[in-house]
Design a protein that fits this description.
The structure holds two protein chains of two kinds. By secondary structure, chain A is an all-alpha fold. Chain A folds into two domains: 57 residues; 215 residues, MetI-like (MetI-like fold). Helix content of chain A is 73%, strand content 0%. Chain A is built from 14 helices and no strands. In chain A, α4 packs across α14 and α11 packs antiparallel against α14. Chain A is globular and about 70 Å long. Chain B is an all-alpha fold. In chain B, α6 packs parallel to α11, α8 packs across α10 and α8 runs antiparallel to α11. The chains are: A mainly alpha, B mainly alpha. At the A-B interface, α1, α2, α5, α6 and α7 of A face α1, α3, α4, α5 and α6 of B. Chain B: It is found in: Cell membrane; Membrane. Chain B: Its main location: membrane. Chain B: It is a multi-pass membrane protein.
Chain lengths: 298, 335
């Protein structure tokens, strides 16, 4: 995993620790993954997860079975609820959601990584004020911000356009992305940055080839959070899109409302819409833990 | 394993680096500043336009009158200068009365609900963020440890957060219904959302269940950087598990925790969708944002004043939170 094995303890404190830890990875598993711990972990998760399991099972039941009292968990299995969802044309909405979430997440990373780098490494005057400015974008009730944004978007003719959502989601997620990445970057030893600079690497190249590999777990967590926030966003999507650019939360709420409060269909809708997040979670969780190969740094 | 939150190692790096950096700073400081500004510029411009514009607009409108019958009974087209009247309406519960005199608002008037909504919102924020932080910390520590099926748990835990609030709130309606799932399971017959205590509890439960994964994920990311060596040397020094948590884990995970708590608080302070769908703000669950939603129907400019007040309240709270976590954030940022 790492190319450096012969650092002296003093100059390479962090690097060595990191290295050792990665080498120990498997050993930890045997050492700490005791039976008690594993059981506790699973019990806690199951309690938290019970409503999800109930929702998942109910989504495969008929409405009649779902409405029984007490709830039956293992009634007849049916895909009716899901086919009802697809009959109503959930497909394009899922694609719109995916476009808005993925593109805005990539845009956020492209803007937030350099910004966080500038804030944590380069001496920016009054940097705390800048950080607080980013925070201040989260002070106004979102419902109050909606009307001015609606009028602005209408003026530029951007209603029912998925790219407008992409831009708005990017702006929505930039503050937290910068705060998160900054907290990771603040801990990168300055020597690493400086060594790369002295070599004459351009700033963007430094960011790409040195910084990004080091904070990969941070970037993975940030991406996942931005993706989920965009995926779940309802207010802006509901107000600014109509048909062509509408996203899946809007579709789902419409679906639930028009179908009445049918439990099984509601559960199917909720299950379906959480699947892409699970996929994104699987993709990110790997990076989240493994991250960091210091070979690149040296 | 990310880059660490290791004060010890960091300090070691700092002392050797500081001297060198000071010299460098003098010579290329201006160049670096310009570069930093260039890197920040796209973000600053984007946020100023998209997020700054509505704020300026809200502040401007908050000083204008709303259309409607004025105090002498004539129709008023609105949007004329109103001074601080909108603010007085919310902060001092002053309503226009007969004959052009202001009087205190009758109970039931939206203005009269202002201070209770502030209290309710702050109450929700303190309770949910506290619970989410504690449970999220447990989950993060759990997911950080190695055990069989860890990857699955890590992803499964995201599910509640992965479902849009609008959908999950409907699911909670079914659960908290008098004939709903919770009563079926408990064998009770309790109207959860019809009294203020249980209605608030229902909202807190729904919100904690949904958003704990967010905090857990952030703390987990922060935990990745803490090396085992620190724990091992602490163990050698005779620190017990509790001490290791307070002295090592908590301080080192603090930057990530700060981001989680600050952003989560800002979201709960502006929360409206979950209580709106669960209770429509009835039974003591009217948050500040729900009051804004209600006021929007009867007067945009007065709602703008309420939004601006909310903005200022959240501003103050955010300032307090940042100060609270300051030690870590500022020390790391300035050098």
């Amino acid at each position: 995993m790492s190319a450096q094995t012969t650092e002296t303890p003093k100059s390479g404190t962090i690097l060595n620790r990191r290295k050792k830890k990665s080498a120990q990875g498997e050993g930890d598993l045997a050492e700490t993954g005791g039976f008690v711990w594993t059981t506790t972990a699973w019990v806690l998760t199951l309690i938290f997860f019970a409503p999800v399991a109930w929702m998942f099972l109910t989504s495969f039941h008929s409405e009649a079975d779902a409405a029984t009292n007490p709830p039956t968990l293992l009634a007849g299995f049916t895909l009716d609820n899901y086919s009802a969802l697809f009959d109503r044309g959930v497909g394009p909405f899922l694609i719109n959601s995916a476009t808005a979430s993925i593109v805005s997440t990539l845009l956020v990373l492209a803007l937030a990584i350099p910004a966080a780098y500038a804030l944590s490494i380069k001496p920016v005057e009054k940097w705390t004020d800048v950080m607080f400015f980013f925070l201040s974008t989260k002070f106004l009730p979102s419902i109050a911000a909606l009307l001015p944004i609606y009028l602005l978007v209408q003026k530029i003719g951007g209603l029912d356009n998925i790219w407008i959502l992409v831009v708005l989601y990017t702006a929505m997620n930039l503050p937290i992305a910068i705060w998160m990445l900054q907290s990771f970057l603040a801990e990168v030893p300055k020597e690493i940055m400086e060594a790369a600079e002295v070599d004459g690497a351009g700033t963007l190249r430094v960011i790409w080839s040195v910084i990004v590999p080091i904070i990969t777990p941070g970037i993975a967590a940030t991406s996942l959070i931005c993706f989920i926030f965009s995926w779940n966003e309802f207010l802006l999507a509901k107000s600014l899109t109509a048909v062509a650019a509408s996203t899946s939360p809007v579709f789902l709420v419409g679906f639930i409302t028009s179908e009445g409060l049918f439990l099984a269909k509601l559960c199917a809708a909720a299950t379906l819409v959480s699947l892409p997040v699970l996929i994104a979670g699987f993709a990110a969780q790997d990076k989240l833990v493994r991250g960091l190969s210091l070979g690149a740094v040296k | 394993m990310s880059i660490t939150s290791e004060p010890i190692a960091e300090n070691a790096a700092d002392t050797s680096g500081k001297r060198r950096r000071r010299k460098r700073d003098k010579t290329i400081h201006t160049g670096e500043s310009r570069l930093a500004f260039l890197l920040l510029a796209p973000t600053l411009i984007m946020l100023t336009v998209i997020v700054g514009y509505p704020i300026i607009k809200a502040i401007y409108q908050s000083f204008l009158t709303d259309p409607g019958l004025d105090s002498s009974g004539f129709f008023n087209e609105g949007n004329s200068w109103n001074g601080l009247a909108n603010y007085k309406h919310w902060l001092l519960q002053q309503c226009p009365g007969a004959g052009g005199v202001t009087e205190s608002c009758p109970t039931g008037n939206l203005g009269a609900q202002f201070w209770s909504s502030v209290g309710i919102t702050i109450g929700f924020t303190v309770v949910t963020v506290l619970l989410e932080t504690i449970i999220g910390m447990c989950f993060a520590l759990m997911m950080h440890r190695a055990f069989k099926g860890r990857a699955l748990v890590r992803v499964a835990i995201l599910i509640p957060w992965a479902i849009p609030t609008a959908v999950i709130a409907k699911l909670w309606i079914v659960i908290f219904d008098p004939q709903g799932v919770l009563n079926n399971v408990l064998g009770t017959d309790f109207a959860w959302t019809s009294e203020s205590g249980p209605a608030r509890a229902a909202i807190v439960i729904a919100d904690v269940w949904k958003t704990t994964p967010f905090i857990a994920l952030l703390i987990l990311a922060g935990l990745q950087g803490i090396s085992n060596e620190i724990y091992e040397s602490a163990k050698v020094d005779g620190a017990n598990a509790w001490q290791r948590f307070w002295r090592i884990t908590l301080p080192l995970v603090k930057p990530a925790l700060a981001v989680a708590v600050i952003f989560r608080s800002l979201d709960v302070l502006r929360m409206y969708d979950l209580p709106w769908i669960l209770t429509q703000g009835a039974n003591g669950t009217t948050t500040m944002s729900i009051l804004v939603v209600r006021q929007l129907n009867s007067g945009l400019n007065s709602a703008s004043a309420l939004s601006t007040i909310t903005f200022i309240i959240i501003f103050a709270i955010a300032l307090g939170l940042v100060r609270l976590f300051n030690a870590n954030i500022v020390e790391r940022g300035t050098r």
